[in-house]
Write a structure and sequence with these properties.
This protein is of the alpha+beta class and 359 residues long. It is built from ten helices and 13 strands. The chain has a five-stranded antiparallel beta sheet, covered by helices on one side. A hairpin with a 5-residue loop joins strand 11 and strand 12. Helix 2 packs across helix 3 and helix 9 packs across helix 10. The radius of gyration is 31 Å and the shape is elongated.
Length: 359
């Protein structure tokens, strides 16, 4: 009961302060009628303002109402609703996915500034405690200091980047010269998409485009007899595998009409492929029906539940590698109907898994 009374008084005090600052000279009768309380309660509220907040409050006898002798005064009190508290307490946990990036420190710095603006007293209209919620995040790789800032600065100023890069399957770092176009974040993992001036265009990892620094280079088709070393190619690099990054004085221009959504399938993953999107058709067992039906797996998806409870899913994408990994994660609970290439890769992957346990 006492907590309930304190909550109502907090609301009332805030509204009385607002009325006084508005310049309407609210009187006792006005405040009694507005809040449905007694004369004694309003007088206690006025004294509370004077004692607790040192409010310079006086009564103008001619206007029969209260005013502040210092027109700049306002009570420093913040009322947090249950929704506000939920947001504040939850966001800090969600920042776990930005560990090892400057966004984490910048966010905490911003929250510190907000805290400094808050009053000493904060009233909370909630019994909610964030100990009632737990977050399980994916293990994230570290990003070398300076990588994040330099990439965003280079994108903003349209300057070429030099850095050393190690692919996921290599122990050796190789020098890269990149025109950075776009940054992508997938489940807390950060990537930069751009035009690598030194990369060789190939069918599996990107087509050559006009996009080199201060020059327009000839394009190369995926089925060209020989790669064109001078042409370069689009590439995606993981920020966690970049080191010794430097912004050069050399500038570049992004090709007219560049659209990141045309280069990667933002609904499914960050892989960049030269092939056209394929139609994927999958059939999930009835045991996964609710799990599949309650999610949007792709913006262009078609989904239906069949009479036996199984779920048919169809969508178009160029994310072949990502989709293979995703499908394998469902084990025997999914069957690939199309394309034939994906079906064969699933079969080969299953054979390799079996082979690891035989002999």
């Amino acid at each position: 009961m006492a907590e309930r009374e304190d909550k109502f008084r907090t609301h009332r005090i805030i509204q009385i302060d607002e009325d006084i600052r508005s310049g309407i000279y609210p009187g006792i009768q006005f405040l009694m009628d507005k809040h449905g309380v007694s004369r004694r309660t309003i007088l206690r509220d006025i004294e509370f303002l004077r004692d607790r907040y040192q409010a310079p409050i006086e009564c103008d006898r001619r206007r029969k109402g209260y005013y502040y002798t210092d027109p700049t005064f306002a009570i420093k009190n913040v009322l947090l609703t249950e929704g506000d508290l939920f947001t504040v307490s939850t966001v800090m946990h969600l920042m776990e996915q930005y560990k090892n990036t400057p966004l984490e420190n910048q966010f905490r710095h911003m929250m510190g500034k907000i805290s400094e603006l808050l009053p000493n007293q904060v009233s909370v209209d909630s019994g909610f405690l964030n100990k009632d919620i737990s977050f399980i995040s994916d293990p994230l790789p570290s990003i070398e200091e300076g990588v994040f800032e330099n990439i965003f600065e280079a994108i903003k100023t349209r300057r070429v980047l030099n850095f050393d890069y190690r692919s996921v399957a290599s122990a050796e770092y190789k020098s890269r010269v990149l025109n950075p176009y776009h940054v992508l974040c997938q489940k807390g993992n950060w990537y930069v998409f751009g035009f690598d001036q030194r990369a060789l265009p190939s069918q599996s990892s990107g087509r050559a485009l006009q996009g080199s620094a201060n020059a327009s280079l000839p394009a190369a088709t995926a089925d060209a007899a020989l790669p064109i070393p001078s042409a370069g190619a689009y590439r995606i690099y993981a920020l966690s595998r970049i080191k010794n990054i430097k912004i050069t004085a050399e500038q570049f221009t992004i090709p007219e009409g560049f659209d990141i959504s045309k280069e990667v399938d933002l609904s499914f993953g960050i892989w960049h492929n030269t092939g056209d999107p394929e139609e994927y058709e999958l059939l999930f067992d009835s045991s996964l029906a609710n799990y599949i039906l309650e999610r949007e797996w792709h913006k262009g998806q078609q989904m239906e539940q069949r009479e036996d409870g199984s779920v048919y899913l169809k969508f178009s994408s160029n994310q072949k590698k990502q989709i293979l990994s995703w499908v394998l994660g469902f084990g025997s609970a999914v069957k690939v109907l199309a394309p034939e290439g994906l079906k064969q890769e699933v079969i080969e992957s299953a054979k390799k898994v079996i082979g690891r346990y035989e002999g």
